Amino acid sequence: MSSPNANTPRLPGPPGSGEKEDQVMQPVLFEIFGEMWKVQARLGQGGSASVYRVSSARSSSAAVKEFLLDAQGGDYGYLKERSVLEDIQGHKNIVTLYGVFTNHNPLSIATRCLLLELLDVSVSELLVRGSSQGHSMWLIQHCARDVLEALCFLHREGYVHADLKPRNILWSPDDECFKLIDFGLSFKEGHQDVKYIQTDGYRAPEAELQNSLAQAGLEGDSGCTTAVDLWSLGIILLEMFSGIKLKETVKSQEWKDNSAAIVDHIFSSNSLVYPAIPVYHLRDLIKSMLHHNPNRRSTAEAALISPFFSIPFAPHIDDLVLLPTPVLRLLNIIDDSHLHNDDEYEDIIEDMREECQKYGSVLSLLIPKENPGKGQVFVEYANAGDSKEAQRLLTGRTFDGKFVVATFYPLSAYKRGYLYQTVQ
Fold first, then answer.
1. Residue 413 burial by CB count (10 A; 0-12/13-18/19+): exposed, middle or buried?
2. For 415, phi and psi rounded to 5 degrees?
3. Considering the entire predicted model, what is its pTM?
4. How sure is the predictor about 333, in pLDDT bands with cuts at 50, 70 and 90?
5. pLDDT tens figures, 220-241
6. Inter-residue contact 115 to 3 (CB < 8 Å)
7. Domains in the chain, start-ordered, CATH in brackets?
8. Active-site residues: which are they?
9. 65 has binding-site annotation
């Protein structure tokens, strides 16, 4: 699938010249399948591609990944990622590829593009915005399960992701799950076509060895396996638990000598923050992913049956602020006195609906009169974009002299009528 044209002015530069991204002007419009999509923002950029948030008059928002020509003036990066994505579509924890197109800008420089599902906050952003004590057990469990589900599927299909890191795990507000992105280094197990895989800080020992041999012009015995993905996930989960970036730690000699002891120390340091049994299960799960010998490392399938996933957790209020969903929960608005007068209660319902509809299409609104959820206002929007805008504009406003607290709320729980009475 391709599109004949797009209005994307750039500064001059010959194809394959290796223009730096800051020398390339941001596109204004993409013409995608006969429809004009406006570029709203650049979401990210790398040496080979940039990612933009785009929207059109008739369609919901999406993401465009635009590839620059490689050093040889070719499309290898685009063709590689397109090939992998087309082969692994259909799993709920892997980003959806909507289509591919060619962008012709006014300077007649064609670029290859992927039209992708628009996702939200990355685990990298969550690590930056989280507390120094680490994230909640609910969030760690949610992320771990979603990524392991994706890896189970990916590995069954014979693929190694080969660049698992916090920046490549993104939250889907509408599906309420984490999804994997960026398959530019992925390869079929046993057919590794890229020597330098994974990112510093999340690179498995066997990948480090392979890189060192390649730099010396030597060949290793065999390529890396799916085990490298489990190593990366183990480091990610350890960072989420500890609230500490571990790049320097995993490069240290102490880590190489006895990584298990360092993991034990991190968990003992946080033992007062979390309940003991889930902590031990999480510790053992992470340690099973961090064996230096890849043959002893847990598989994704085996990791999913860890006792850690049998324990139910409720989200922390910080989780509900950080992870957007289509449902907004408003606190500090309704007094008990408002709930027992039917006329006043109905007036409040209508007032709240009218106010919330200023920010988007409201599908439903609920104010429970009894616990659980007594006095909380739950607003279900048509999509997470509307609820995000409402959360941004309502947070900190006053209602009857009180400051409004606005968090998101799990759509799945709301649909089941499961309302948290209190979320600490």
1. middle
2. -65, -30
3. 0.88
4. confident
5. 666 799 999 999 999 999 999 9
6. no
7. 21-116 (3.30.200.20), 123-310 (1.10.510.10), 324-416 (3.30.70.330)
8. 146, 163
9. yes
